[in-house]
Amino acid sequence: MNLRRLLRPLRSRFLLLIPIVPALLVACNKEDAQSTFGTSGPIADTQASLFIFIFWIAVVVFVLVEGALIYSILKFRRRESSDDSLPAQIHGNNKLEIIWTIIPVFILIAIAIPTIKTIYDHNGPPSDEGPVLEINVRAHQWWWEIDYPGEDVVTSNEIHIPVGQWVNFTMHSDDVIHSFWVPKLAGKLDIIPGDVRQLAMKADEAGFFFGQCAEFCGEAHAKMRFRVKAEEPEEFQNWLDSMRRPPVELVSDDAMAGQTLFAANCSSCHATNTWQAPAARNERTRLAGLRTAFIGNIEESAVIPAPNLTHFATRATLGAGLIELNSENLIKWIADPDDVKEGNRMKDLAAPYRNNSLSSDDVRQLSAYLLELKPVAADAVMEPASGGATGGTAEERGETVFTGSSGCSGCHSTGSDALVGPGLADLSSRSSDAEIHQSITDPSAVVVKDFPDSVMPQIFGSTLSSDELNDLIAYLKSL
Amino acid sequence: MTTIAFPTLISRPTSYTGLWSWIGTVDHKRIGTLYGVTAFLYFLIGGIEALIIRGQLNTAENDLVSPEIYNQLFTMHGTTMVFMVVMPMSAAFFNWMIPLMIGARDVAFPRLNGFSYWAFLFGSIFLNLSFVLGGAPDAGWFGYANLTGNTYSPGDGVTFWALGLTILGVASLAASFNFVVTILNMRAPGMGLMKMPVFVWMALVTNVLMALAMPVIAVALIQLGLDRVLGTNFFNPVAGGDPVLWQHLFWLFGHPEVYILILPAMGIVSETLPVFSKKPLFGYPAIVLAGAVIGFMGWFVWSHHMFTVGLGPAANSAFTISTMLIAVPTGVKIFNWMGTVWGGKLHLNTSMLFSLGFIAMFVIGGLSGVTHASPPTDAQQQDTYYIVAHFHYVLFGGSILGLFAGGYYWWPKMTGKRLGETIGKWHFWTMLIGFNLTFGPMHWLGLNGMPRRISTYAEGMGWETSNAIATVGAMLIAVGVLIFIINVIRTMSSKQKAEDDPWDGRTLEWSIPSPPPAYNFARIPQVKSVDDFWYTKHPELLHDERGEQTESAAPVEEDTHGGGSIHLPSMSYYPFVVAIGMSIGIVGFMDIRADIPSTDLQLPWLSVVGIVVGMWGLLGWIFEPVTAEGGH
User: Among residues A248, A397, B276, B454, which one has the fewest Cβ atoms lying within 10 Å of its Cβ?
Assistant: First the structure.
């Protein structure tokens, strides 16, 4: 049987039935926050246009194949149920076999060439488009730790990048596999624990882009989101600078009460002090220490790496890009984090939730404090590192340091109870002045038995002035 | 006759009816029925899981189920549909049809066949018991390390998963050896490999793939089990293990597994399309070759599941090329099926509708597959609903529709009754429309940035409408399944008998009574050509179309066994006993836990019991003659 005879039914009639092309692209709303179309950077642009290219090839094949199928169903269906005669018995056609083997090969070559070119184009930032901004990303169940190496800036869950400059994300995972995905800027890349991944991208326009973890990573995977804020270079530089300025003075009474609560209950996991360069440089070590402490005692640990909250009030979202940051949402979050984001560890670990001791006043005060956490204006007089108390006795000034933003009381009780660190009651009978001094400024030198190493930050030697240190030691000896 | 004297541990079943006759059965048809019924029950369970998932995702910020339960549901939905529905449903057709289509009286190892089924049953029950024993597995059907480690999955769920799948793997391995040997050794005289029905060919490829792929997942599951139970560190990055190793092992199994799931359905439509087009299969050698090539090339594409893992541009480029190449033999199959339909006289009954629906939907799944065979586009699509849409077009639009085509086609042979046609068409159209409503919008959801495996999503992402449509579609699929169940009940309670050859069939199973007698063929047929039964009915066509001179393929009056008596293997309880022993032996490892200090490591007593029972059963099996004294 030759090809012409085989195709004769086609000649006699037109293809009356035009199969419906899937209305995918027509229905598309490029404005949707995570749409992979209407992209805002060269990587995502190329990925989208490569998809469109392959898509139209697929549409043509789809129309031809499905059209031929529907045509032959209509054309060759048995019309009389009593018709038992046999159609021509054709066993095959070698010419056709060759044709429909070769044609797809050419189509696939046409797809493979731009594909492989793009794979290599997207392998890192281009070398000829100016300096590359390096940003470290560390994924945690279920939030993102962000730092800007060389800039002494640490933050979490909201990544600021400059428009028009290539950014290279160096990504680690602290626990399981995650995947970093900002659809408007670039396709995703998995982050493998124990390994490192690099992902380069550039934003061509300013915007507040949605990101989301794309690899299933456990209970709260659906709520492991983030944002990328692309802003004009000057604005970006302003933001970097602001992240290194001290916080404004607290104004409301609630906020001041909240500060004390925070220092006592929250600061063992959440840092608010990385506007200080030493604290910023130490933040990774501190979080790694918390991680070691958590992994070493999963059942009972009171600490775990937690998002950095420095200048928290300048952010737009809360709970890893989950909800808008405002007083109402923040109160809801602090009152019952599990209700907002099931699976997150705050409620399991933090003492006030465990002891059921968190009052609604506490929640309001904590929220007020966090919402006042913002940097002083650029022209404001630089304050000394720690909001130093000047009056009173050395012990009184030392107590202020202990309960204040240095956060000692977040981990140490003044009684004999062990929190994250040992209780400090009766310290003077155990340790000399020099030993206490060493334990504050170089905590890894001697670690109390049964307490994990490297949990206590190595920063107090540089964040505390020598006066403050002396006051603090005086206070500790009085316990 | 002298036999080694060995005490009879348990006597054989004697009655051919009742519960014990099912437990002791070695008849491939009965075992096929057991597989089919069990797989269908799991299809309902997996479907209910899917409906709850769709209910949860119906609206933004929904709280029908907690994330904890949601994660269990999507894990078990995937695990169930792959390992407890499509694979055993294919095994049901293999069991029923391979011996009938190759002119054999049973499979090569009838007792091993029984063992396969019972091991499958116990493994699957064990896995599902996790729902009531402290929580089902919740780390995804793909079980990516190191989320599956004790640190991140502290409950027993993942241990249930690892041990349960190990049992299912043993069942699949035993079955695959059995079918490969059956196909290679037990064909009727004259049936050369290139005269086998295409369904048998695809069964051969599938079972070779299974025999080679199951050991790979077994290795991975044993490593995972050891990590969890004994505290080894195969996948623990903190101790130098490698979570990506799991992905390589899983997908090195997982991609051949995709073909294990689809090739049986491809085999089925290669039977139904010629029968209902009244034409021989177009390009029989091309379809067979394409199937074999797919089976071979299926081993070289696994990393396309890992394009976003960061394996580097060279690996991604290589796997792009191999992945695109595998589209070629797949296309060859589709074109040949269309060549079969072209110029035919199509009987558009339910089985044919499902077969044509298979082609139409599989084409969509194949084309969407090409769009993410390209790593740069896959970087946007990987782990989104676009992928969910893609593989449901392949596995539901492909495998499930193909299996329903086979169900309607072979129902009269298996039961002696024909499923209702009018209600069958209702079943087809509800399911086809429901399927497209469910999974069509998911393409768009994925391109619009909705990740997979998320238990909830925010308002205002542009995902609400598509999700709501998908939920309606899922309910329509459920209606389709209900219609099918009604059809089965009505058919089976009706008195109307089907003819032995209701479709004017082409292959040997239609030459014997419906349902077939226990011995299948009173006389083993002598095969002269492909579609031998058809040319027995139409001897004139052999000359006409082939242009080759062949003698008439009249049945040959010869029984290979000689004489009038047909020897069939006798029933035995031992396969059941060994399957129980093995399953308990594996389940016993639940007893020990890595997070209990090693000084407390207790002997897994349950495993000891299981091994003793299994060994006892094996001894009985070995010393029990295949055929009872004087048994027929």
Answer: A248
